[in-house]
Amino acid sequence: MSGADLKAGVTDATLVAAIRSGDEGAMATLYDRYSSIVYAVGLRVLGDTGAAEDVLQEVFMQLWRNPGVFDASRGNLGAWLAVIARNRAIDSLRKRRPETDIDDVVVSVVPDMAGDAGRARAMEKVRGTLGSMPAAQRSALEMAYFEGLTHTEIAAKTGEPLGTVKTRIRAGLMALRKAFEA
Amino acid sequence: MSAHEQFADDLALLAVGALQGDERAALEKHLEGCAACRRELEQLRGDTALLALSAAGPAPPSRSRERLLKAIAREPAASKAGKRRRWGWTLMPWFAAAVFALAAVFFFRQSDRLAQRVAELQSESTQQQAQLERAREVVSTLTSTNAMRVTLVAAQTPPQPQGKAIYVRDRSSLVFIANNMPALPPQKAYELWLIPTSGAPIAAGTFKPDTHGSATVIEPPLPAGVGAKAFAITIEPEQGSATPTMPIVMSGAGE
Q1: Which of A154, B21, B87, B174 is the most buried if burial means most Cβ atoms within 10 Å?
Q2: pLDDT, tens digit, for every residue of B117-145?
Q3: Do A130 and B54 touch (CB under 8 A)?
Q4: Residues B219-230: what's their mean pLDDT?
């Protein structure tokens, strides 16, 4: 962690620019910043440490090979990597070929996560918001996002009408939006 | 929210990746033509990204870090450029073939209708062009410095200053033409005022007559949709005033 500590004040954008010129140290710093969240997402979706490690490796290799795809104007790097990890893990879970192009990934409202404190605050806030949702709403949202289930599958699993599932998912997203707008 | 309310739930489902089948196809078709819904989808994707941050668990094992650093050392910067495929690339030929096939069917069915519509639009465009030309001619005649401006009055009446304001309230469009205007003192200008049906006079442009006493004010900036009961002219400093300075030198009420 000492390398990361030394570079604590360096922005993600600067590190990504360094990666473009092949700076392996910059890559290590970004890994130290975001590997935990990327790994946690992979583990959450796949439930298997080996598979989660593979996702972690793939996501960071993707950044190394193609750092130009990350567009700082479309959100911060930590959230972007987490979303890519989720998409890769879901593709792997559903045994389908990768269908989510990383160009499509948008992370618009996420606050700065480059510092340890900002990262912890953002994650805390998301967990807090999810924790204060009605259980059925949170569960619908998580089944869709972390299990990759369609609304029809969620309805079948929970025995609830399709319309209810739809409404819950939207209400859940709106609650998250509101929490970060405040 | 500015997106279509009937698609609101489906947009959220699409953002989290939970919408499939006909409903997804219908929504994607709608999105092609609806910028408001595309913006909302983008925002919902941003909201969805927050969900990823809720995952928590143990830190990855240290061997993962070593594995990554070894892997990137094997792919040095010099060999990076342009050799990697993007995810989804392998599906590209199939996707492209499907798109072309659909497009071919679609265009085959639409071509007759399109040809007809193009002919209609061409005809409309020609008509509009002709109307535009005519409007240009009218305005250029009205405003030309070479124009001869003749005011016809009862015989044996000396030439009188005269202004004609033509105002279209719906478009807040005003054209004003003046003749025989007396010369102004130095650093002064005439200012035209729109007298609304209620409220204070609204400045509608300043003007200075030419050597023949002619002047025009074309399309001054005006607030939208104000009803006018009269127009008036005062003499003001060159840069114009916010409120009229008495006396009113000319005025006229609407017919």
Answers
A1: A154
A2: 777 788 788 888 888 887 777 777 776 76
A3: yes
A4: 87
Write down the residue that tokens 């050392």 correspond to.
B73
**H or E stretch including B176?**
strand B173-179
Q: 10 Å Cβ neighbour count for B98?
A: 11
Highest-confidence segment of A173-177, B148-152, B239-243: A173-177
Closest listed residue to residue B55, CA positions, set A34, A39, A107, A135: A39
Model confidence pLDDT, tens digit, residues B41-64: 988 888 888 888 888 888 999 999
One-letter amino acid for residue B143 of the chain:
T
Q: Which residue of B has its CA nearest to A127?
A: B54
* B248: phi then psi, degrees, rounded to nearest 5: -80, 125
The residue whose two tokens read 């599906």 is B91
B162-168: strand order across its sheet: B162-168, B173-179, B215-218
3-state secondary structure B190-229: EEEEEEECCCCCEEEEEECCCCCCCEEEECCCCCCCCCEE
Residue B183 to residue A128: CA distance in whole angstroms:
76
Q: Do B55 and A41 touch (CB under 8 A)?
A: yes
- Report yes or no: B205 and B163 within 8 Å, Cβ to Cβ: no
Question: Which residues in chain B have Cβ-Cβ distances shorter than 8 Å to A173?
Answer: 12, 15-16, 44, 47-48
Supply angle C-alpha A76, B51, A64, rounded to 5: 40
Residue B224, both tokens: 């939208």
The structure's pTM equals: 0.56
| Cβ atoms A92, A46 nearer than 8 A | yes
C-alpha B139/C-alpha B188 separation (Å) is 26
Sequence-distant (≥ 6) Cβ neighbours of residue B123 within 8 angstroms? none
